[in-house]
Amino acid sequence: MDANMPLTAASQASFPWLSLIVLLPAAGALVIPLLPGGERSDSNTPRNLALIFLLADFLLIIGVIGNIFNNQISGIQLAERVSWIPLIGLEWSLGVDGISAPLLVLSGLITLLSAAASWKLKSKTKLYFALLLIQASAQGLVFLSQDFLLFFLAWELELVPVYLLIAIWGGTNRQYAATKFILYTALASLLILISGLAIALSNGEFTLNLSELTARSPSGTFSLFCYLGFLIGFGVKLPIFPLHTWLPDAHGEANAPVSMLLAGVLLKMGGYALLRFNVQMLPEAHNQLAPALIIIGIVNIIYGALNAFAQDNVKRRIACSSVSHMGFVLLGIGAIDSLGISGAMLQMISHGLIAAAMFFFTGSFYERTNTLSIPNMGGLAKALPITFAFFLATSLASLALPGMSGFISEITVFLGITNQDNFTSLFRAITIILAAIGLILTPIYLLSMCRRVFFGPRIPALAKVEEMNPRELTIGLSLLIPTLFIGFWPRIAIDLYESSTNALAQNLATTNLVAITHTILYG
Fold this sequence. Notes:
The protein has a two-stranded antiparallel ribbon. The chain has 20 helices and 2 strands. By secondary structure, the chain is mostly helical.
């Protein structure tokens, strides 16, 4: 079924599974404030209740994607469409396809593990876990929305919990980091709103339904302006250079569980939205601007890697590495072929798991050492051998060691660029060489960090620290095992989205052929 075709009866949901996925965590967020005891209570009930709701939601996601979702269909499935506010054309319209399905699973897993990583939190637990649950609902709604205004409301809603989670439970400069985060993302959202409404008001009757907007497929200068508006708006969240500066500050001040959410899910929203809006809705503009997207991706890769060298804070170094790794997502999207787009999807899934794991293990040894300053750490390998083994494994996955998910995702992006005939041989060669420089820099800054943190003279203040407990080991394995599975058997992820990414690439190729034919005939 083509991604742009209207929904058929077979694609409609017989039961509102997707609404249940979205609303279940929100229901938990409403229950938690009703629990007895004030915010200063030492009760673990808010945490336990949040874990129950998030576990139930994750199992529901797995059940729906594993048993009901058909990965052979490229279009929207399990559609739910109910008029919500007719006056402004807003519909409660949900649906899932190959682009959203794997990211929905990733979101459910990372949010659950983020709540589990918050086990020892004692301050304002009701508010904290209620915000995590609201965040889970907002994330799900972003990936499942099939109405532009509903998507935009979800996009804005998920900013609020993250802002509060950083501003209240963050580090010394948490207010600055949280304010910078909300200003960057909220201002960028204006461009998303303007571009979306411009398309909704063009070429016929006003509609906010994404399938109907995609069918309009705007062209010409108008589509280029809308594309740029979406690119900047979604690029802040990805993030793209030079709109990335909020990310190191946010990671540097957020606690480890919130950093897991930022790296594992929020950055992926930017990549998902680029595929959904820039590639699927504006194929003509994407074909024209794809080389620019590749150039931005190269800048991301090299600049992020070089910037990581300058960071003496573990979390800030990992945050800069995220900027670099998300550059490969831009390369894959810019490759405008099925292999490149597949690599972009796989890179988002892979990076979500790896970055969340790295931030989790960083939080684990921060709880024991009370510092994230690389110069103030050393010799921890002997004191924390298991933590060292896990952190080294995730670092190796991040630097694309064969057998890890990072390798297969990045090599797929490279092959997508290599196989693309729309670019000149010189452009492809320069792209591959410059991207390879980023690959060379990555092991240098990651392994040097591991050496400085875990080897060398042991600092006396860090001589007596406790090793990871069973709960932490379970969280770590829950992130590391999928990374290994995807590295050895990538089909487990690729099968979920391949039909949809092939349809996207085919649509781009068809649009490009039509544009070339029009140029030949009419000049």
